[in-house]
Amino acid sequence: DTAVSQTPKYLVTQMGNDKSIKCEQNLGHDTMYWYKQDSKKFLKIMFSYNNKELIINETVPNRFSPKSPDKAHLNLHINSLELGDSAVYFCASSPPGSTAPLNEQFFGPGTRLTVL
Amino acid sequence: AQSVTQLDSQVPVFEEAPVELRCNYSSSVSVYLFWYVQYPNQGLQLLLKYLSGSTLVKGINGFEAEFNKSQTSFHLRKPSVHISDTAEYFCAVSKWGGATNKLIFGTGTLLAVQP
Questions:
Q1: CA A36 → CA A78, A88, A110, B62, distances in Å?
Q2: Do A42 and B108 touch (CB under 8 A)?
Q3: What is the pLDDT of residues B47-58, one digit of tens each?
Q4: How close A84 comes to chain B (CA, Å)?
């Protein structure tokens, strides 16, 4: 199936640990994103990569480090996890080009991170 | 700065009744507006988008929205809802970041359809 996939779907861990969330899209898109959805369902962009290059970094703590090994993958590594990091993290992708502001973003199913 | 306001956090409605979910935006430049739906425990799915042209936009699942520039609104409507429409609905405005598209979301409206 063509889609945006994320692993794992659920992640439960202790404070202070380091964890990674993986994202892959097979839609042939150049641009990928990470969003954080908090407990009140508020969605906020964290990062955007275009063809493996970081484009947007929305004042996210340095403990969060995205990595894009190729344009089909955008992984999120989080160091020294804190209670406030508990949220659902969504990966998304969109087509490239000059019409990019008009483009739909395709979202993955989300990863629910719980920090204890 | 661009922003989106969804005035209702929750809208309860009976099955087969009409519904309107409100969205207002603020922007000093041309806007591209979107409605996304999030079913329980799933990712977001595009319902419809306004880019230009006709102010009445039709989307999937019988939803439509009307772009009103003078009222800076982009309200979502459906003439008759089903139980399966129960979900969180997000209005979003697109901001061009120079090389990529950043979506700025509203706080969401939970549409709760009751039998």
A1: 13, 6, 9, 29
A2: yes
A3: 999 988 889 999
A4: 19
